[in-house]
Specification:
Length: 318
């Protein structure tokens, strides 16, 4: 097995271990009936605000992919919004890698990108997501005294982001040399593929496009934090902004590798563990976690489902 394969397998096992540990911690000595009763006092206005914050991720994501994709005058931003909405739906309802593969297919078929360009957009998106997660974790470390278990779990994420950054940087800045080398030692077709991929990684060579895309990735994380704070208010909980950053940091680690579709159970457990660090009763934390996950799913999975159903309906002969 290659070093990369060992790293992927280790990361998956680590994520599974963390998920099991979080679920165990969250459910121990918890009064589920009391947690359910917490839902009766929810303030709907704050829930609406949370839904809007989560929904704002989709247009930010669309602008980001529009910026990362090769320039095409005839490609409307609305089409990219449809692409990311349907990709988000699949990501939140299917196992690992299915959503990513769907995103590539949609970028090619609906977005009009070449296969190399679609793969480059996905790769750069994953890099930016990883960097944004590390920034969230770093910010949480500055604002909150982290639990002992937390810093050690950051290492796989940091290693993966560093490796992806190195590979994409080489491909972006040395694609001509790589293409020539591949054409000589392997096949001309491989050289052409590497050349196309390197050209499509142009945003990494552009401070404006690369920096703008990173800012959009951070804006998406900020929208998540805002949604988390709104849900706190919906339950009448008043905690500092640092709590929202910490909750998102825990979620970023717990859902690093999706071990179950939609991270059902894992998501709630991570939120419960995060709020227990701030002294909230487990029952109240569970109520917040369930509502937060529902809001996240409604805002990020249902819009794309509408496009998917609409596409199937239009394709069905009358």
């Amino acid at each position: 097995m290659t070093a990369r394969g060992r790293l992927v397998r280790t990361t998956r096992w680590l994520a599974l271990f963390v998920a099991i540990a979080l679920v165990t911690i969250a459910l121990r000595r918890m009064d589920v009936a009391r947690a359910w009763s917490e839902l009766s006092a929810v303030r709907p206005g704050w829930l609406g605000a949370a839904l809007l914050c989560y929904f704002a991720i989709l247009p930010l994501w669309a602008v980001q992919w529009h910026l990362l994709a090769p320039f095409a005058p005839g490609r409307p931003l609305a089409r990219m919004f449809a692409v990311v909405s349907m990709t988000s739906t699949v990501l939140n309802t299917t196992p690992l890698l299915v959503g990513e593969a769907t995103g590539v297919v949609l970028l090619v078929t609906l977005g009009g990108l070449s296969r190399a360009a679609a793969l480059s957009v996905l790769a750069m998106d994953q890099l930016l997501v990883g960097i944004a997660k590390l920034i969230v974790l770093g910010t949480a470390a500055l604002l909150v005294a982290l639990p002992r278990w937390m810093p050690g779990t950051v290492a796989p994420l940091a290693m993966g982001v560093a490796a992806l950054l190195a590979l994409l940087s080489i491909a972006a800045w040395r694609h001509t040399q790589l293409a020539r080398w591949a054409a000589r030692v392997a096949a001309p077709r491989l050289g052409d593929g590497l050349a196309s991929l390197g050209e499509a990684l142009a945003p990494l060579r552009s401070p404006a496009r690369g920096g703008g895309s990173l800012l959009l990735a951070l804006a998406k994380k900020s929208a998540e934090i805002a949604a988390i704070l709104c849900i706190q208010r919906a339950f009448g909980v008043s905690l500092p902004i640092a709590s929202g950053v910490f909750v998102l940091a825990c979620l970023n680690l717990a859902t690093l590798v999706p071990v179950v579709p939609g991270n059902v159970g894992v998501y709630e457990a991570a939120v419960v563990v995060a709020y227990s660090w701030f002294g909230l009763p487990a029952e109240q934390a569970l109520g917040i976690a369930v509502v937060q996950h529902v809001c996240y799913f409604v805002a990020l999975a249902l819009p794309g489902a509408w496009w998917i159903v609409r596409g199937r309906t239009e394709a069905t002969p009358v």
